[in-house]
Specification:
Elements (H helix, E strand, L loop, with lengths): L1 H22 L1 H25 L8 H14 L1 H22 L6 H26 L4 H26 L14 H22 L5 H29 L14 H4 L3 H15 L1
Helix pairs in contact: 1-2, 1-6, 2-3, 2-5, 3-4, 3-5, 4-5, 5-10, 6-7, 6-8, 7-8, 8-10
Length: 263
């Protein structure tokens, strides 16, 4: 039953994500805002397990920050961080919440970085030349990486337990995911060689194959630390927003950085 739920949700969500990324503009920004705010909600619940209580206002403020960071570029990041620092620290000052103030402030700023800021780089990636095709291509590479890393890891994986945060993952699965990310890049280039240069697609393959899998492991690290299996139950059979977008939220920002460094 869980496998059926996962398949049905994937059939619905994958085309939706591809369409939104292709359309871009406020369709993409609105979608990223919803996903990041739900991610902040899940992070806030996870922090509570560690007895770090962030004010609920971090969720709408995170949505506002995403828009500022996306639409105002560098100055939007400065505005957001300054505004959030004043609000988070000022809230504790005026409510006389002294114990745990450092934890709340550091966790709050981390949450804004991990969700709204990284998602703003996804929006900015859409703005580069042929950004609509680049985003869709990266999603396909992530899908290829995750799929073949899982199935080939289960089939031929012998060296497990290397990553304690995810004991079932194997070195063979990790390498298989990386290889098939590059295979996906070459296949995409075959169809779009006049539009998407191979060097851009190879940067996407590196981002998806290496950092996509790292993003999954990092999110597993957080869950292990707080002792939960899924970040939430919001997506039947898939867990929460943090679970489903853990690869994308790191892959695309890394690609965006590599793109500006080398392209």
């Amino acid at each position: 039953m869980d496998a059926l739920k996962r398949i049905l949700i994937a059939i619905i969500f994958i085309p939706l994500i591809i369409v939104v990324c292709y359309l871009g503009n406020y369709y993409l920004l609105g979608f990223l805002t919803i996903v990041s705010m739900l991610g902040l909600y899940e992070l806030r619940k996870m922090f509570q397990i560690k007895e770090v209580s962030l004010p609920f206002i971090i969720i709408p403020l995170g949505g506002l920050s995403l828009w500022l960071m996306s639409l105002l570029d560098g100055i939007g990041i400065a505005y957001s961080l300054l505004l959030l620092f004043i609000i988070f620290a000022g809230y504790d000052v005026f409510t006389n919440r002294i114990d745990g103030a450092f934890n709340r402030l550091s966790h709050g700023l981390f949450a804004i970085f991990y969700q709204p800021y990284l998602y703003s780089l996804i929006y900015k990636t859409r703005l580069v030349d042929n950004g609509h095709l680049i985003l869709v291509s990266i999603i396909i590479m992530i899908w290829a990486t995750d799929t073949f890393a899982y199935f080939l890891g289960m089939l031929i994986g012998k060296h497990r337990g290397v990553f304690q945060v995810s004991p079932k993952k194997s070195i063979e699965g990790f390498v298989a995911g990386l290889i098939f990310a590059f295979i996906a890049a070459f296949i995409i280039h075959y169809f779009y060689k006049d539009i998407l240069p191979l060097n851009i697609l190879l940067l996407g393959a590196v981002s998806a194959g290496v950092f996509g899998q790292l993003g999954d492991l990092i999110e597993s690290l957080f869950k292990r630390d707080v002792g939960v299996k899924d970040s939430s139950k919001i997506i039947p059979g898939h867990g929460g927003m943090l679970d489903r977008f853990d690869s994308l939220v790191l892959t695309v920002p890394v690609f965006y950085l590599l793109y500006h460094l080398f392209i």
